[in-house]
Amino acid sequence: MAHHPIYFYDLDAPYGEFGNFYPAPIQLDGLTWSTTEQYFQAQKFVSHKKQYRHILELATPREAFDYARAHDSLKRSDWNDVKDDIMFKACLAKFQQHPKLKEILLSTGHRTLVEHTENDSYWADGGDGTGKNQLGITLMKVRHYLSHHHNDHHSHHHNDHHNHHH
């Protein structure tokens, strides 16, 4: 039904594309990242070039996640203040830079998006609904943004067109 939430987590399940481990490379900050996960984890170490570069060179999102966790003591002190904005920036880039993924996201209409796993109670629902589901919330913000800005590239042409008529 149109109003039921969409649960996502496993990459090979429906809407697996919404997960941060999904292989959709993004260009951000002048670099190419293999996943949003890799970009997100690297941002914890913006003042530690060695760790930042190391994450950039890791082959899988799991390695990026594990490496960041192992070096948690070096994580930037303002992380809790900036992580939501960083996640939004990464997810927006992913869906803007991959038209097929954008199509899937916009096809969800106004349905609630929920990252469903007991492994995470901040980004996901904690498995039992008690988690914050911050990734789901972020993706709904991205969806809202894209559904209101999807004509950006065309608007200039339309304006030029109108100007010639006056």
TrEMBL record:
<protein>
    <recommendedName>
        <fullName>NADAR domain-containing protein</fullName>
    </recommendedName>
</protein>
<dbReference type="Pfam" id="PF08719">
    <property type="entry name" value="NADAR"/>
</dbReference>
<feature type="domain" description="NADAR">
    <location>
        <begin position="7"/>
        <end position="146"/>
    </location>
</feature>
<dbReference type="InterPro" id="IPR012816">
    <property type="entry name" value="NADAR"/>
</dbReference>
<dbReference type="InterPro" id="IPR037238">
    <property type="entry name" value="YbiA-like_sf"/>
</dbReference>
